[in-house]
Write a structure and sequence with these properties.
By secondary structure, the protein is an alpha/beta fold. It is built from nine helices and eight strands. Helix 2 runs antiparallel to helix 3, helix 3 crosses helix 9 and helix 4 packs parallel to helix 5. It is an enzyme of class 3 (hydrolase).
Length: 321
Amino acid sequence: MRRRFRALTAALLALPLTLTVAPSAHAADPTTMTSGFYVDPNSSAKQWVAANPADGRAPAINASLANTPMARWFGAWSGTIGTATGAYVGAADNADKLPVLVAYNIYLRDSCGGHSGGGATSPSAYATWIAQFAGGIANRPAAVILEPDSLADYGCLNQTQIRERQGMISGALAEFNRQAPNTWVYLDAGNPGWISAAAMAQRLHEAGLRQAHGFSLNISNYFTTAQNTAYGNSVNSELSARYGYTKPFVVDTSRNGNGANGEWCNAAGRRIGTPTRLGGGAEMLLWIKAPGESDGNCGVGAGSSAGQFLPEVAYKMIYGY
């Protein structure tokens, strides 16, 4: 895992001299404190394979999905959140692996898209929840993706709600800095087909990006790694020009093997992408959205609910049809 330093040094030397990488909010590098990424023993794919060993699709799903490191999502369904995050990162720490967690419980979550609506009941309730989330991690190594879509999903919010959201994100980052010194937090920045790089750079900065380790791209979407890398570099160019700093970024490659076809919700004909790894045009390529889990009642997941595991969709995604 320490080879990351050589790759990162080369990448920094290749940046234009006008770009200044803002210092990380944390001194520690969790990738050097662990020996690879954590495989969730209770992922939806693993649970389905265990429950359906005789199914003809089980061998492929087991080999291609169930044993690939991917993120675990946490929200209201997770129960007492500090206990839940503590148990998850504790298990990963015992295995000497790096866990990736997604915090997905912001007030007015997915209020514009609607398929994953919900979240905390108020900004103050969210502040309590995210403080407990960070406290559960404590000083163990982890990577956290903070509130997917929260900064891109402004379309139906008024200015008061936008300012509330920015305050919730900034407050969350402060809690991680205070309570989880060995956690890299990535503030979500949507995807290349959603918000312009200039607008996203402003939204990230206004939500407190300086406090975060970096930003995340393509969560639950299908854009290629090359498209995301170009977009991430454009966001960083805007950050540098406007605010004088840049940040590392990660890309969700879980479903981008065939690229995007213009649909975002359970698009047909998509394919799994490069498994979780360091580097690859970004700081890390991560499986954040679990392949085979529905985006909601739409597309090839018609009749399903967000997060439901669909074995036929998972199977087809392995082969790209």
